[in-house]
């Protein structure tokens, strides 16, 4: 399939990809345009997830690009970033689903699972045979998860007993397994568990009334004496450091998704401006509209340069927490500006789904906050550059 560079990739960062990666990206882009874009507004408005897309989505390889038991990171981090961008450029809910499935859930197994656990579970998640979720955030513990986790794990013989609550857990209304992070009452350390969602004592209920990422099925989870065998404990997760390692890898891809959301809104505004006539000519020829569009493109280009570089650092083993934190903080802040300018360029029509920008405008708010708020990521970077922690 012929690869056509995005016009919104103004400095041609896609040229850094290999020919094989560009071909894979072209196939994913074609599928998204043909199968996702025509239906996603309807699902977003109804706050439902298009389950019929999971199998063909897995068929594109999008859920298996990140991890492979025999060749982890066979595809470059820059390529995986562009996959996240492409998904979010069409729909941030689909991008978030993949981010949870192949990033957080699969990533937990890849980072903290034993070889046997990785061989058993990762192929099933990559193929879409199983749906995964990632249970870290709690009703009273979000930004302070490292120290404030309230869900407990107590060992009894060859089993662990889990009790607690989780909140904002994506995919969790229909997941087959959820990676639950809980504090061991014996040593106070955070450990991870593969919890089949049909386990007695496990329940998940959909969070209603969202104004952002409406197609994503976020859930409240309750764990009441949920018994999990020792073989389902992530064998290499003995402290919150394992959790942080997963988040470091996925946080940069959220930054990529933010660039995709910004591009989606910008492309909708640009197309609209070329066809919307006011004062006898297309508004694309008006100076103030061009100013808005160029500011959008400037934010996109600056953010894209940052996420490309942080992914190159990951490929070289040089990326640290502060690098992904700065990328996430900066890219989501610029995304928030960009979707607002894109909406503004479309006037009142910008708040209507059919004109393309409204969904991105709303979805940006969720990306701005999840996987670490701007403030928390700022403090991670601040600690790195000053040597002083200012978290409390």
TrEMBL record:
Cofactor list: FAD
Domain Acyl-CoA dehydrogenase/oxidase N-terminal: 18-129
TM stretches of this protein: none
One GO molecular-function entry: acyl-CoA dehydrogenase activity
Domain Acyl-CoA oxidase/dehydrogenase middle, first and last residues per copy: 133-226
UniProt keyword annotations, A-Z: FAD, Flavoprotein, Oxidoreductase
Keyword Cell membrane: no
One GO term of the biological process aspect: fatty acid beta-oxidation
Family classification: Belongs to the acyl-CoA dehydrogenase family.
Protein name: Glutaryl-CoA dehydrogenase
Gene that encodes it: gcdH
